[in-house]
Amino acid sequence: MTLNRQKHVRYWRMCANILPDAYQSSDASRMFLGFFIVAALDLLDVFDNPQLEKPVIAVQERKDWIDWIYSCQVPDGQGFRGFTGTDLRDRRSSHNKQWDPGNLPNTFFALAALLTLNDDLSRVQRKELLSWLPRLQRPDGSFGEILGPDDEIEGGRDLRYCCCAAGIAYILQDPATEPYQSPFDENRLIDYILSCQTYAGGFAESPLREPHSGLSYCAIATLQLLTRLDGTSSRRARETLDNQESCMRWLLERQTTVLYEERPESDEADSDDEEPANNDGSSTVNSFADSPMYYTPPLLTVGFNGRDNKIADTCYCFWNSGALAILGSLHLADLQAVRRYLLDKVQHIIGGFAKGPESPPGHSIRLSGY
Amino acid sequence: MATTSSSSSVVLLPPDAQPPKSKSAAYYAVHPHWQDVIPIPQVDQTGVLAPIAYSPRYSEAMSFLRALMAENEVSERALALTEDLISMNPAHYTVWIYRMRILKGLWQGSTSSDNIDTKIVEINEDKSSQQSDTDDNEIKPGLWRNIQDELKWLDEVSFRNLKNYQIWHHRHALVELLPLDPAGPATPDSPKNSPKNRPTQPSSKATNEILSSFIASEQLFLSRILSQDTKNYHVWSYRQWLCARFPSLLLPSYSSNASNSIASTYRTHAEVQAIDTMIQDDLRNNSAWSHRYFILFGHHELTYVQSQSPPIILKEVNEQKLLHKAGLVDADLVTAEIEYTKHEIRKAPQNGSTWNYLRGLLRHGDVRITTLRVFCEEFLGPEGDLWTDQWVDVELEDPATKETRVERQEIGVRSSHAVEWLSEIYSKDETAKDEARAKECLRALAEKWDPIRKGYWDYKLSKLEEK
């Protein structure tokens, strides 16, 4: 099976037109959704492609998208909103702006989307944004999501925000300005990242929590971004990345043939057979009980999971592969088997990618197609 | 009975009308209690990115929410609006914060946002701003009742939105209003819970009863919600935070003094038993194993980190064996847990969660991996064979009837994790180093037991061959 490019382009074009009301509960992350739409179309080579008979995205539409993103930049330049839903418009004032704040992760996605659309970022209020960023960093080095009433840092302290903060600094750094000045405390950030690494090797959301692929990606990606920022900590970030044997092992451990949820009729006590449930080596959760360990046929289908003993999910192909790639160890994974998973199991009939082999394509708007 | 507003010909809903179930019916615009509010519509110009087909109910509620936020309104109707909005979009990142503001205002009997002194309600603030009418670390019964009511509402919302983060943050914010645990060390998420803020007097009997009753109902709630989704990451994060916030009520005490070791008693502790139960229900619940590490060992590591000056980071504790150097490890507890884990591994030798937990134990207790050689070899084939297939048909003869039957028996390698550990053990064991066997383990993994990770096993092999 191959990537059905046309179907995917149609799917993303549909998403760009309108998202159904089931996405209402994702309204607050429209910037995030928007970034994935733009990025997917870009990966499918839809922008500025002279080989296309007719443009998929009109020039005006692209300009409109850029304008919409800029309309989400809050008036004092302290970040971008996640959605126009908080915009208080002409009633916004210093007394109520806490309800319409810049949002850290969505600011990163706004900048990334602008870059993907080939905008020159000239309308970004760089100075204000870079002075807002450190205000979201806590004493322990972690970042929050928004500044709430009384300028309290709100939102969890998980590694995703740390990654977005580093991403913003990376995008907005001006190579012409010498010497580079970090907008926040990079050393503390590295301290925080390291404190999130578990005995199993993977990184968790916060210290002593359960390791998770998405968060491990964020840890590794943040360190990588710090090496590129040429700040005071880039050497420490580099050394840290060069010493991730246990993380690499943990990431590779995430490859799994368990692609399906447990089927109710199967009974562990009776499951005497060591044969995989399907002839491509894939199996159900139940087969953990006597997980086959003998040599498996060459046409294996392997996905990635996010944590120990969980089933494969499309998005983890990205998180795990991405982290492994940054660590220079992607070649140690069985990529052919992962390709088979993506193209045979989760590529959806209408385009897009699903979360698992029996799901609808909605999940693809998150990450999978990307 | 519907009424008509005198200034227009709009037919209004009756004053007691509740938000409708219909996704398209107007509500706030035609409700008598909302006529004074000028909604702020959302305007997205044409060609917007990621447009969503909102239901009219949602668009309307959002327009009214913006209007109230613009005025910082604190009122019962504002509270009701946040509840309505949350039912349609619980991931809205300011509505929950706004709700908390409203609650604090209402609980103080204030309807003006400007007058809300959040510090009066947050009794656990730094002592430098202590209010004179609030006792050290006590909680007024009225506030406690209010918190309980909000928690009850939040419980139900949590069941309907298992994947939502903001719900747990709100819960966290509510619980932060409760008195400190006198034994509580600092946790990153509760800076108020720092040693300098620790109350100097014991709490009153009334406060202790409130805390006990709160913990009991939280434990019940957590077990109910985890039964719906046993590995929910947000729930486990909250559970871990709650344990650190109320350690004397939720955590077994850790002692490095051998005569005070909890090794013989810890299994009867409530939180340990709760985790034991979850593990018995599903041996492969990685979240339960992760929490087990936290309650028995991780919490102690964190406490140590926070007691140090100059500051250190968590990673240093284990890398530099700081707990050992300070004589602060409960070796008997580590030993007891190693035995427990071995027992669980034997039930399901291919379970990654148990093997990783064992890694954590060895690290915390500074126990050498080579001490597990004999244990790991239990999972190999006859005479330490590394290649035998898992199942063998064995012909058995009934001694009485002389009838033979064939039975499938497990006699070969039963755990790729054991083989992996042995490759490390054989190359590290000072007394019985066996590099050749270490390499054979890796080859067996690459070719037979774990070919998915062949790339990794070959890499490890090349590293051994370099030496």
Explained architecture:
The complex is a heterodimer of chains A (370) and B (467). Chain A has helices spanning 5-17, 30-43, 59-71, 104-116, 126-132, 159-172, 186-195, 213-228, 234-241, 245-253, 314-326, 335-346, and strands at 146-147, 153-154, 255-256, 258-260, 283-284, 303-304. Chain A has 370 residues and is mostly helical. Chain A folds into three domains: 1-17 and 24-87 and 97-124, no CATH class; 126-253, Alpha/alpha barrel (Glycosyltransferase), CATH 1.50.10.20; 255-260 and 298-370, no CATH class. Chain A has a two-stranded antiparallel sheet with strand order 1-2. In chain A, strands 3-6 form a two-stranded antiparallel sheet. Chain A is globular. Among the domains of chain B are: 251-367, no CATH class; 371-466, no CATH class. Chain B is mainly alpha-helical and 467 residues long. Chain B is 51% helix and 4% strand. In chain B, a hairpin with a 6-residue loop joins β1 (3-4) and β2. Chain B has helices at 56-70, 76-88, 95-107, 118-121, 141-160, 166-175, 205-228, 233-245, 247-250, 270-281, 286-307, 314-319, 322-325, 331-347, 352-365, 373-377, 416-428, 435-449, 454-466, and strands spanning 3-4, 11-12, 391-397, 404-410. In chain B, α1 (56-70) packs antiparallel against α2, α2 (76-88) packs antiparallel against α3 (95-107) and α8 (233-245) packs parallel to α11 (286-307). Chain B is built from 19 helices and four strands. Chains A and B meet through α1, α2, α3, α7 and α10 of A and α1, α3, α8, α11 and α12 of B.
